[in-house]
Specification:
- This protein is of the alpha/beta class and 384 residues long.
- α2 runs antiparallel to α3.
- The protein binds 2-acetamido-2-deoxy-beta-D-glucopyranose.
- InterPro entries: DUF707.
- Keywords: Membrane, Transmembrane, Transmembrane helix.
Amino acid sequence: MGILSRSPNYSRRLEDNGMKLLATALFSVTFGILLGLSFPSLWITKASLPQKLPCSIAISNRYSDIAVPVQATDISKIWVPSNPKGAERLPPGIIASESDLYLRRLWGNSEEELKKNPRYLVTFTVGYKQRQNIDACVKKFSDNFTIVLFHYDGITSEWDDEFEWSENVIHISVKKQTKWWYAKRFLHPDIVARYDYIFMWDEDLGVDHFDAEEYIHMVKKHGLEISQPALDPEKVCTWQITKRREHVEVHNKETNEKLGWCSNPNQPPCAAFVEIMAPVFSRNAWRCLWHMIQNDLVHGWGLDFALRRCVQEPAYEKIGIVDTQWIVHQFIPSLGSQGKEEDGKSPLQGVRDRCYMEWAMFGRRVDEAEKEYFKSLQVQTPSN
Ligand SMILES: *[C@@H]1O[C@H](CO)[C@@H](O)[C@H](O)[C@H]1NC(C)=O
């Protein structure tokens, strides 16, 4: 099958004609929180600046590290530099810099409303057509897990009619986007800070041989910061390292990839590698990875090769495949439906081409950023 078939299921969620946002209540809430976290300094700063200052200066102030207010020397006013950026005017005791995705009720005492405090978060990027499979997946996760569905086809309330669990999960609906697009916008590390592990899964995974609690147990036992369940060895795998191995609990290296794919046996894709179809991240790994996701590269191709940058070396000790809990990648070919025919290219081909383009682009950006960083070190330390 080769490289062409890697993760074809991402592609069906993309289209470039105008972004149409249809968001559920949570969209607004999450966005509101993010906005609240990010912009208070802007608003306060603007309000406190003399009226005649041009707007551009007030806005650039938000990005400045040296936004020391006039009141800084006035001890009757609050200014706490160690507060989160932008919240320096608040007494530290009132600051809630992190959130969670727990549902709350509109009445009664808030202290009594949370019967469970799930420590694990599971997200699926879904279309209504795959609902039976998602039903099977969701049932694999106990109420120790918060579940979020990202809907790429705009169909949400229909799920409530069919599945009882649907009323207790979070639905986020934005048409024709990919899971990395949703993740970047809705899963900011401060928003999901409550969760020890975050599952970011596709919709076409068979979970007959998967037990979620047992998976968590394995990941903790082996100290894996980034992991995925092994793939059914009977099926075609793009990367051999993801195939299930018998008689081991987890594995992380020593693989037999196609000729030329392994330039270094301790580096991706031959070690320290998981694919982007069913990754599971620790809180710390996610905080790092979130910063590496590019806003314009929506398919996430190439991220798998860069995951190692988010863990301590040697990366293969922190990134691995769990063999005791394994899944089946079903390669459901609903690909083209989210693309658009253009320049004689089929929708499917258009999406696929963009995947490859993004992969190359991401690789270049990482390389260049790394080079720039090391170059800047030399400039700063002339003794080198
Ligand atoms: C949920 O987590 C608790 C605490 O870790 C554990 O005791 C319990 O067995 C879990 N529930 C299920 C259904 O596995």
